[in-house]
Amino acid sequence: MENRVTFDYSKAMQFIGENEITSIKAIAETAKNILVEKSGAGNDFLGWIDLPDNYDREELKRIQAAGDRIAESSDVLIVIGIGGSYLGAKAALDFLRSPYYNSTDSRRKGRPEIYFLGNSFSGEEIADVLGLCEGKRVSVNVISKSGTTTEPAIAFRFVREYMESRYSAEELKHRIFATTDRKKGALLTLAKQNGYETFVIPDDIGGRFSVLTAVGLLPLAAAGCDVRKMLDGAKAEKEKLFADPKNNPAYRYAVARTHMLNSGKGVEILVSYDPYLRSFIEWWKQLFGESEGKDGKGIYPSGCIFSTDLHSLGQYIQDGRRVLFETVLEQEEPCGELKVPTDAADADGLNYLAGMTMPEITAKAELGTKLAHAEGGTDSLIVNFDRKDEFTFGALCYFFFIACAASAYMLGVNPFNQPGVEAYKRKMFELLGKPGYQK
Ligand code: PA5
C-alpha cells in the first residue's frame, strides 16, 4: 500500500510527552468512533468519507470529456466561485502545475489559462480578467453549491454579459458550465433556462470538503490534470487511515494539535518551504477555520511560506507571544534541482555554496529554523508527503479532511456547519437593501 502522507511529532516532544498523547488518545478514540459510525453532529455531511470509493463514474467521465472540450475550444477558462467552491482547485493548480501556470507554456502544455473570479467584490479584478480575455476564446465554469452566494453571483452576471456580447446563445451552451446542487438553487435554474451543462455537488458534501468532486475536478481536468489519480490517492489514504486506526497519522495529528491548544497554543501556522504550496495553505486555512472555529473554540489557522515569511513574520514566531505552534509540510522528493553556480571573482562571497542544489540549501534552512524556533518556544509538528503529483494531492486532502473532522469532534463542535459566516451576510444584505433583509 502507498504511504504518501505521514505525521511526525517527535520534534515537538518538549511540548508533547508520550503520556499526554496517551491520555488524549481516549478522546481521539471517541472522535474516531463518531466519524466511523457517522453518529456525530453534521453526520449528513459525511459523503466525502466514501467518495473515493463510490464517486459517480459517469459524472467523472463527463468531467474528463468536458475538460478536454474546454481545452480544445478555449484559450481561457474563467472559474467563478468562493470559499470551498474555488480554493481547492486553485490549491491543486498551483501544487500540480505552478502559480505561473498562466504565463508558462511548458507548464500549461496547450491547456487554457485559468482565472478565478467571484471570490471578492473587486470590480477591478473582474474588469482586468475580462480585459485579459480580449481576442481569446473563453469558457466559464461557475461553481456554487447554494447557487445564491452573492460574490460569485455578481461576478457571473458580469461575465455572462461579456460572454453574451461575444457568443450566440447556442454557442454559450458549450462554453458555460455550472457546478451546483442537483435539485435546487438560482444557478441551477439559470443553467436549465440557458441550456448550460451542469455538474453536481453531492448533497452530503459541504463546500470545503468538495475539492474531489466536480467543484475541483472540472477546472483541473481542463488544466490537463489526471483527476482520477486524485481520487485514487484519496482512496489509498482512506484505506491506510482506516486499516490501522490506532496508528492513524491523521488522528495522531488531530491529537497533537488538540494537545497544543490545551497547552495554550491557540494559533497553528501551516508552513511550507515551497511557494507553490501557498494556495494549498489557503485551502487548509478555510478547511480548519470554518470547521473548528465556533462556539468560542478552535485553533486559529494561519499559514507561512518560509523562508519568505521568515523575513516578515519570523521575528514574531521566534520571539513574540508564545501562543503559536507550527505544522510543517515536508516534501520528500526535491524539485527544482538548480545548482548554485561558481563565480571566479566571488564578490558576493557565495562560493562556499557553489555546487549545492537549492533543495539542499532549503533542507539546511529548514533544519536551522526548526532548531531556532524550538529554542524560542515555537515547536513543530511535521506532515510529510512524497511528491507533488495528483495521487499525493488527493491523499493529502483526504488526510486533512479526516484530521479536521476528528479535531472538531474532539473540541465538541460540529465540523460541517458555518453559522458564523452568515453574520456578515445578514448585515451586508441589510445595508444593500436585499429584499427580506431590511431592518
Ligand atoms: O465550505 C463552505 O461550505 C463554504 O466556504 C462555501 O464553499 C462558500 O461559502 C461558497 O458557497 P457556495 O458554493 O454555496 O456558493
Could you walk me through the main structural features you see in this protein, from its secondary elements to its overall organization?
The protein is an alpha/beta fold and 439 residues long. The protein is built from 17 helices and ten strands. The chain has helices spanning 18-37, 47-54, 57-73, 87-96, 105-108, 123-133, 150-166, 169-172, 186-194, 214-222, 227-243, 249-262, 278-292, 314-319, 358-376, 390-411, 421-432; strands at residues 5-8, 76-80, 113-117, 138-144, 176-180, 197-200, 267-272, 300-305, 324-331, 380-385. The strands form two sheets. Strands 1-10-9-7-8 form a five-stranded mixed sheet. Strand 5 (176-180), helix 9 (186-194) and strand 6 form a beta-alpha-beta unit. Helix 1 (18-37) crosses helix 12, helix 11 crosses helix 16 (390-411) and helix 12 crosses helix 16. It is globular and about 65 Å long. Bound molecules: 5-phosphoarabinonic acid (PA5). The site of 5-phosphoarabinonic acid has 14 residues, from loops.
Task: Describe the structure in brief.
With 439 residues, the chain is α/β, with parallel strands linked by helices. It is built from 17 helices and 10 strands.
